[in-house]
Amino acid sequence: MEKLEFRFPAQPATPAAGAALCGVVGSGNLEILIRPGDEADACVVSVKTSARGFGRIWEAVIAEFAARHAAGGTRIAINDMGATPAVVSLRLGQALGEYTGGVQ
Amino acid sequence: MNAPVANKLALRRSYFEASARARVAAVLDAGSFHEFLPPEASEPSPHLAVLDIPGAFDDGVIVGSATLGGRPVLVIAQEGQFMGGAVGEIHGAKIVGLLRRAVEEKPAAVIFMADSGGVRLHEANAGLIAISEIMRAVLDTRAAGVPVIALVGGSCGAFGGMGIVSRLCSAIVMSEEGRLALSGPEVIETVAGVEEFDSKDRALVWRVTGGKHRYLTGDCSELVEDDAASFRDGAIALLARWHEPAPASSTLRAEQARLTERRQRFAGLRDGLDVWGALGVAEPRQIPMMDRDSLVALKKGLPA
Prior knowledge:
Number of domains of chain A: 1
CATH superfamily of the domain at 11-180 and 220-244 in chain B: 2-enoyl-CoA Hydratase, Chain A, domain 1
Oligomer: heterodimer
Strand content of chain A: 25-35%
Shape of chain A: globular
Largest interface: A-B, 19 and 18 residues
CATH topology of chain A: Ribosomal Protein S5, domain 2
Radius of gyration of chain B: 19 Å
CATH class of the domain at 11-180 and 220-244 in chain B: Alpha Beta
Number of helices of chain B: 13
């Protein structure tokens, strides 16, 4: 298992729920839990992944997510069982959609 | 395929393929579910963390309260996609806690959506103890007059300790896709050899563990389609007619005698086909191709 931590600037999100969960820790899949964070203009992400050595790809995928979405003011925790970058992007969008009440 | 059949299939929401959260949302009354220890409040398994394996926030099981057909129920839903739905220490403690709550609150029922290969071997003794605590808690709940209804139709079925737990429940609602047994096919093949049981023979696996077989042998009470709405209807119908019997040793002795007789009757039979023939099914080879309604009608016509 590898543990990774990231922090990216992002436009503030408008939460509709106190927390949102998306996905399952199954083969090739991951779960994402979004909760309110301490900094309104930053998205703080912690990842636990079964696949070692993919830190730079995680960084690129999450940076792209933070740049494209208003995901600021959030704390995002991820448990990963080998999801591909496309699945990670998809789940991040779904989880944020649930957190903000369908608005991305 | 004609249009009405295609439309009917398009409207179906497979219970087998759904996640535990999707099952909870689809089986219970819409919007009625309240989760105890939701992911943001629960703890992932410390044992998996020690082994350097990512855990799940809810440790692979969802517990909470809801209504089903307007009646208050407590709910357990195992997530088969996380470690095969296997029971670890926290997973088990959440289930036991919910069942103890049922003893105090006396809801109309506990709905137990089982989807598990049994004990989570990574957690060794903690997982084994968790399973035995769940067994005791299921019996305590039933003794308090609260029926525990198991729904078995997930990708992991109910095997090992969870196979026992399911049979300790008041009744089981199952789909053809569901499987229920003690040792799983791979375990039997590993221990006794491929000559004893070929776990790659999926049709055989379903003929000896699948929902149709369990329905014909009376191990499950309701056979439903692989559709969340069918599981919901099946559970509501079962609950409407169910009266939880007071525990009595005479009932246990009668059940023991019935199982002993069944074991003798089916001794030496190697395949579901043989068992169905012995039960009086004229053309056992037709069973795997039958739809749910035809099979239910066929069972009604079998000799008692």
